# Entry
Amino acid sequence: MVSKAERLQKQLEISTARANAAKEALAELRRIQNQKAKKEARKKRNHALFESAGLMILADLVDTESGLPAFDRGALLGGLMAVSKTLGYGPESTRFQEWKSTGDALLAERETLRKKTNPERDMETTSEAITSILSDNAMRD
# Structure
């Protein structure tokens, strides 16, 4: 016959084993969730980088076929650094407003052209539109 102490000891061992298994399962679920979150963050970052590359393509700073800079890399970087410095003065600067209106006009023109050639895609988000423009450029080139 098993004593009460032995029975309770057995229950404790079983409960401890179940608790450890639950802890391991929880740790695995958290690891999977973290992995998914990191993958989603990476996907969003990559998408933003592709959109930025698309703007460089629209400005004819990058060759669409090769993906290489259309100009000397040092000159391109220096120019981009000057642009960054100028944009740092804020949206109230005259240069910022000039560049913004020029850029917005080109984006609006491209969007209008896209809607005319692809009317079923009227409900696209801005990022989807830029992706579409990039793919249109790739097919055209």
Remarks:
- Residues 40 and 136 are 26 Å apart (CA to CA).
- Helices lie at 4-58, 73-87, 94-117, 126-140.
